[in-house]
C-alpha cells in the first residue's frame, strides 16, 4: 500500500483539530468560510485529496480507503492523534472510510450532503463515463456540466458569484485525479451498517434543495448514528458549507462544543 508523502492542506486556528474533506471534483477552497469562520474554536485543517488541488499523485483509481489513509498520514505528519473529521459528499465517503479504518482517531464526525450507501450499477457506469470524459475532454469543458446540479435555484439567484467560483474550482482540477477518484467512488462499499458503531458526536447536514443527494439519505444516516444531530437547511443545495456558511458554522460550533 503506497501512502502519499505530502497531502497539501490549508489550515487556520488553534485547539481542537477539525479536518474538513472536500467533495468531487473540488479542492480545499470549498471550505474557505470554515477556515475563516471556525478558527476561533478549532484548528481547521482542509486538505486537497490525492489528485486534487495542489496534491499530486493520482493513479488509475484512488479508493476512498486510500484517501482516508492519506488523511491519517497527514494527521501523523502534523503530530495529531485524533480529530473531528468532516466531509462533504465524496469527502463524506472518505470520512466514513476513516471512521471504519481508524475509529480510535475519531473524536467527532460531520457528514455534509453525503450518503453511506454504495453506488447502484447505473451510477457505477456513469463514474466510468465521467472518468473518460475528464481525460478526453478536459476539466474546462466538463466544469459547466458538473456545476449545474451543485447549487440550489435559490442560491443561484441570491449568490450568482458562486456559479463562477465553482466553475473555476472544477475547471482547474487535474483530469487524471478526477478520473481516479471517480473510479474509486464506484467501488466504495456500503457503510450504512457501520453507522451504529460510530458513537462519537456527529452532525449530519444537508439542504432541502440538494438535487444530487436527497435529504432522505441524510435522515437515514442520522437515524442510525447513535449520537447525531440532523440539520436540513432550507433553500440550500449540494454545497451547504458554501451556500449557507453561517448556518453550517453555527451547527459545527455546537458539535465541537460537545466533543470530548
Ligand atoms: C460530490 O459532490 O462529491 C459528488 O457529488 C459525489 C458523488 O458523485 O457521489
Structure in words:
With 260 residues, the protein is of the alpha/beta class. It is 44% helix and 15% strand. The protein is built from eleven helices and seven strands. Helix 2 crosses helix 3 and helix 4 packs across helix 5. The protein starts with 8 loop residues before the first strand and ends with a helix. Bound molecules: D-malate. D-malate binds next to loops.
Give a short synopsis of this structure.
Helices cover 44% and strands 15% of the residues. With 260 residues, the chain is of the alpha/beta class. Helix 4 (121-137) runs antiparallel to helix 8 (175-186).
- The residue-averaged pLDDT reads 96
Strand order of the largest sheet: 1-3-2-4-5-6-7
Sheet with the most strands? 7 strands, mixed
Query: What small-molecule ligands were found?
Result: D-malate
Radius of gyration: 17 Å
Amino acid at each position: 500500500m503506497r501512502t502519499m508523502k505530502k497531502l497539501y492542506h490549508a489550515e487556520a486556528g488553534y485547539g481542537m483539530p477539525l479536518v474538513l474533506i472536500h467533495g468531487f471534483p473540488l479542492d480545499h477552497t470549498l471550505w474557505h468560510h470554515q477556515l475563516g469562520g471556525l478558527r476561533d474554536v478549532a484548528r481547521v485543517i482542509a486538505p486537497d485529496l490525492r489528485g486534487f488541488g495542489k496534491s499530486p499523485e493520482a493513479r488509475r483509481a484512488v479508493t476512498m480507503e486510500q484517501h482516508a489513509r492519506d488523511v491519517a498520514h497527514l494527521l501523523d505528519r502534523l503530530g495529531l492523534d485524533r480529530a473531528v473529521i468532516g466531509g462533504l459528499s465524496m469527502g463524506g465517503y472518505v470520512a466514513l472510510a476513516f471512521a471504519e479504518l481508524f475509529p480510535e482517531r475519531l473524536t467527532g464526525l460531520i457528514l455534509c450532503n453525503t450518503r453511506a450507501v454504495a453506488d447502484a450499477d447505473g451510477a457505477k457506469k456513469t463514474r466510468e463515463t465521467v472518468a473518460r470524459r475528464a481525460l478526453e475532454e478536459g476539466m474546462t469543458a466538463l466544469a459547466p456540466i458538473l456545476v449545474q446540479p451543485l447549487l440550489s435555484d435559490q442560491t443561484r439567484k441570491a449568490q450568482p458569484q458562486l456559479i463562477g467560483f465553482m466553475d473555476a474550482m472544477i475547471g482547474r482540477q487535474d483530469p487524471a485525479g478526477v478520473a481516479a477518484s471517480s473510479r474509486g467512488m464506484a467501488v466504495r462499499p456500503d457503510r450504512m451498517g457501520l453507522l451504529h458503531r460510530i458513537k462519537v458526536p456527529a452532525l449530519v447536514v444537508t439542504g432541502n434543495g440538494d438535487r444530487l443527494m436527497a435529504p432522505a439519505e441524510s435522515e437515514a444516516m442520522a437515524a442510525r448514528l447513535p449520537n447525531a444531530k440532523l440539520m436540513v437547511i432550507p433553500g440550500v443545495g449540494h454545497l451547504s458549507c458554501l451556500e449557507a456558511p453561517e448556518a453550517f458554522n453555527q451547527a459545527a460550533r455546537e458539535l465541537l462544543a460537545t466533543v470530548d
